[in-house]
């Protein structure tokens, strides 16, 4: 962990006040800009030096073979990996013949600021070249949240004290050299030259511009990237453009006096397709750029601000008493909205579009961790991500057939819908992803009452996933419905019988599908659902087997789990975490050791399936064996710790989730930010200290309480067309409706109607519990005494 985070602590910005080359790759991820369609890592304008150059287009991937030493039936033969596409960020500068490169000469000052309200990354540099010439440079970059195919950069350079010959080279570069792949299985298989040139052109004149078109060899996708410029400079200035297969370049040369400046606005357009012809794709990009130029740089900035103002209006979280968490939760929300804003029928990957970690794949992270946040802050983005699941349902159905199952078996990890996991015990066997999708659907429907979505997307997703569960499980001789041989969220167990989380989530999936087909019987008939089939889902849900250890009075994670030997934590050196990089899975699978919240997550997502006493006992039991080797774990532990009354511990876990990337707590932020963990910071605050739950039936529930150290927590959320504000402080909680009609909620179980008039309610006194213990060496960093 980096003890002194490199970024200043401010409520609405993230500022890096000097450039530390050891942290350059982390900063590239943290400063990445995206709109869910285009992703630009926070690389320096001049391209060099870099940790990992990165420009991504959602779902633009290349196939890669998945070779097996010992293959088996149904193993996927092809994987998919995100590729680094044409880089339009590059603007190089020559100062009296010397290239601007921060490794040479003297950097007088270097700051970068990510503006969470403006949606821009600004860089200010004063640099003296090795020959002693000083320039003042400012660049501002944005990826438009309103114009999906567009990014833009404003770049200006001023000589500080003498007339200088300056040359700007604004480029598009394809097939950039990328650093060698790391051995960590969580990193990506980076392809060295993924793009084949198909066409290029450059045009000089008042509006110098260029386009490059490339294709991928195996996945057969085509991509066009274009740039166009508005240049301002002194009278003595020349420009020219040129293009080649893998690069296009605008050259601007000028003699600039100290009181003058040379500046340009670079408009970038991106498009890709599996079907469109070259001319069509070029037109798309050129058209996008024309529209962006019409809006103009100031207009793009204004649109960006307006979009984010609207987002924050129904999403902001204020934390009084902890400035780091305040910044971190907004930083997290900013990355979530960037990842989801304009996906439009495409997935939200585990790293968003901020890096190549996990090959750019999408997992259950999206439905379980990210969509709940979007559902309550920017619901149309949650709907978009679920529409993508629906769009790839044909592949999930084929996968089910291949597995000998009914309905749809969604892939554990993928870019375009096909299963890409080469390790089936922690891939295909993690069938819970299907119930996770169903759960995201029911939560979205509850929060929006979007009837069109319910009919067109929700129903088929619920029906096909219910079919899967019905065929995957079976009634035993006692009439119980059991699901054998599956992997739950905890990846240190695999292919087990009756994973509690899976059974409870499948139960919800089956019951929700049965309920919806009753409501939408005409549409359900079109999906060939019969009354008998729906009844069989209801039976399976009612008869679901829920494992319970009567002796220990806890829920085992799966059949037999509580009788396994415990992992020898005392004998495990601190540097042997994550365990998956140091021990064979065979050892992990037969011991009581938990990678990430599993039973604890079940208690968060299916709260009414447990008594309060069971929640307390289960939490303590699993706390002692959970090592948090996944960044998905601490946010869930925070929510349940808060619910059962371990408020200090909840605070520690909130911080672990929230600061995951700002403090690089898992040493892999360089591969991209941890989108699920960032979302988890919101969940820890709203679901943990706000106690917010949306029960399957009944009113939205809050059970607010605060840990010592947070003076006031206030959050806004969207729900059924309203904006609700909850403000928790030391003498109670204020409920206020900022928009929409009065809403029925519950406060610590008591019904309440909230309106446009603030109402203050008391918080019932907390009953402190003895703190639970963690595995040896895995105690979370304490939030107390942090100064
Ligand atoms: C976790 C999975 C998660 C994946 C991607 C793994 O380490 O165990 O639950 O889906 O990372 O974030």
Automatic annotation (TrEMBL):
GO molecular function: carbohydrate binding; glycosyltransferase activity; hydrolase activity, hydrolyzing O-glycosyl compounds
Domain spans labelled Glycoside hydrolase family 65 N-terminal: 15-273
Location of the Glycoside hydrolase family 65 central catalytic domain: 330-683
A single BP term in Gene Ontology: carbohydrate metabolic process
Name of this chain's protein: Glycoside hydrolase family 65 protein
Family: Belongs to the glycosyl hydrolase 65 family.
Comp. bias regions, Pro residues: 765-774
UniProt entry keywords in alphabetical sequence: Glycosidase, Hydrolase
Active site feature: 491
Stretches the record annotates as Disordered: 749-787
Annotated substrate binding sites: 364-365, 595-596
A UniProt-annotated Pfam family: Glyco_hydro_65m
Boundaries of every Glycoside hydrolase family 65 C-terminal domain copy: 694-753
């Amino acid at each position: 962990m980096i003890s002194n985070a490199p970024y200043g602590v401010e409520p609405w910005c993230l500022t890096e006040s000097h450039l530390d080359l050891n942290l350059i790759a982390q900063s590239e991820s943290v400063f990445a800009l995206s709109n869910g369609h285009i992703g630009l890592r926070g690389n320096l304008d001049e391209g060099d030096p870099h940790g990992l150059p990165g420009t991504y287009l959602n779902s633009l991937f290349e196939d890669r073979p998945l070779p097996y030493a010992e293959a088996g039936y149904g193993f996927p033969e092809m994987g998919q990996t995100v590729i680094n596409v044409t880089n339009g960020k590059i603007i190089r500068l020559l100062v009296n013949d010397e290239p601007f490169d921060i490794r040479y000469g003297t950097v007088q000052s270097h700051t970068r600021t990510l503006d969470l309200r403006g949606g821009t990354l600004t860089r200010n540099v004063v640099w003296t070249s090795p020959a002693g010439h000083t320039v003042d440079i400012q660049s501002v970059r944005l990826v438009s949240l309103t114009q999906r195919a567009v990014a833009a950069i404003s770049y200006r350079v001023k000589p500080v004290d003498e007339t200088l010959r300056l040359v700007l080279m604004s480029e598009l570069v394809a097939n950039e050299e990328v650093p060698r792949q790391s051995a960590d299985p969580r990193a990506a298989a980076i392809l060295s030259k993924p793009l084949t040139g198909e066409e290029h052109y450059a045009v000089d004149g008042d509006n110098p511009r260029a386009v490059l078109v490339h294709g991928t060899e195996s996945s057969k996708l085509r991509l066009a990237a274009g740039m166009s410029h508005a240049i301002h400079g002194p009278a003595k200035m020349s420009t020219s453009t040129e293009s080649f297969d893998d690069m296009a370049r605008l050259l601007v040369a000028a003699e600039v006096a100290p009181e003058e400046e040379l500046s340009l606005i670079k408009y970038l357009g991106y498009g890709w397709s599996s079907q469109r012809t070259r001319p069509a794709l070029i037109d798309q990009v050129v058209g996008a750029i024309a529209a962006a130029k019409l809006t103009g740089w100031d207009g793009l900035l204004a649109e960006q601000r307006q979009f984010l103002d609207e987002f924050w209006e129904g999403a902001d979280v204020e934390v009084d008493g902890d400035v780091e968490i305040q910044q971190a939760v907004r930083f997290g929300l900013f990355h979530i909205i960037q990842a989801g804003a304009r996906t439009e029928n495409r997935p939200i990957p585990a790293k968003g579009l901020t890096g190549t970690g996990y090959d750019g794949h999408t997992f259950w992270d999206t439905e379980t961790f990210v969509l709940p946040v979007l559902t309550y802050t920017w619901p149309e983005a949650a709907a978009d991500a679920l529409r993508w699941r629906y769009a790839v349902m044909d592949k999930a159905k084929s996968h089910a057939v291949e597995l000998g199952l009914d309905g749809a078996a969604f892939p554990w990890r993928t870019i375009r819908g096909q299963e890409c996991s080469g390790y089936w015990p922690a891939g295909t066997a993690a069938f819970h992803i299907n119930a996770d999708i169903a759960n995201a659907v029911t939560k979205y429907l509850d929060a929006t009452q979007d009837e069109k979505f319910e009919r067109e997307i929700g129903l088929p997703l619920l029906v096909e996933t219910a079919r899967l569960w019905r065929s995957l499980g079976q009634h035993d001789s006692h009439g119980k419905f059991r699901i054998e041989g599956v992997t739950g969220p905890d990846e240190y167990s695999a292919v087990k019988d009756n994973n509690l989380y899976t059974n409870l989530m499948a139960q919800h999936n089956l019951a929700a599908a049965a309920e919806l087909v009753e409501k939408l019987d005409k549409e359900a008939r079109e999906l060939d659902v019969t009354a008998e089939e729906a009844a069989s889902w209801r039976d399976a849900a009612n008869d679901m087997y829920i494992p319970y250890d009567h002796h220990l009075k806890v829920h085992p994670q799966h059949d037999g789990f509580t009788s396994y030997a415990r992992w020898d934590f005392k004998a495990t050196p601190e540097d042997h975490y994550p365990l998956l990089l140091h021990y064979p899975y065979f050892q992990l699978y037969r011991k009581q050791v938990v990678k990430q919240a599993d039973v604890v997550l079940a208690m968060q997502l299916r709260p009414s399936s447990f008594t309060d006493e069971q929640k307390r006992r289960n939490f303590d039991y699993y706390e002692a064996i959970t090592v948090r080797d996944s960044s998905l774990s601490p946010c869930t532990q925070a929510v349940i710790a808060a619910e059962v009354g371990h408020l200090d511990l909840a605070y520690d876990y909130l911080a672990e989730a929230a600061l995951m990337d700002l403090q690089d707590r898992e040493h892999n932020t360089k591969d991209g930010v941890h989108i699920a963990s960032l979302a988890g910071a919101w969940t820890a605050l709203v679901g943990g200290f706000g106690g917010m739950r949306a029960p399957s039936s009944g009113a939205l529930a809050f059970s607010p309480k605060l840990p010592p150290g947070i003076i006031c927590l206030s959050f806004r959320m969207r729900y059924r067309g309203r904006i609700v504000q909850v403000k928790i402080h030391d003498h109670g909680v204020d409920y206020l409706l900022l928009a929409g009609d009065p809403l029925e909620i519950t406060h610590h179980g008591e019904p309440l109607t909230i309106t446009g008039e603030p109402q203050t309610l008391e918080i019932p006194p907390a009953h402190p519990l003895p703190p639970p213990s963690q595995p040896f060496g895995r105690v979370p960093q304490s939030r107390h005494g942090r100064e």
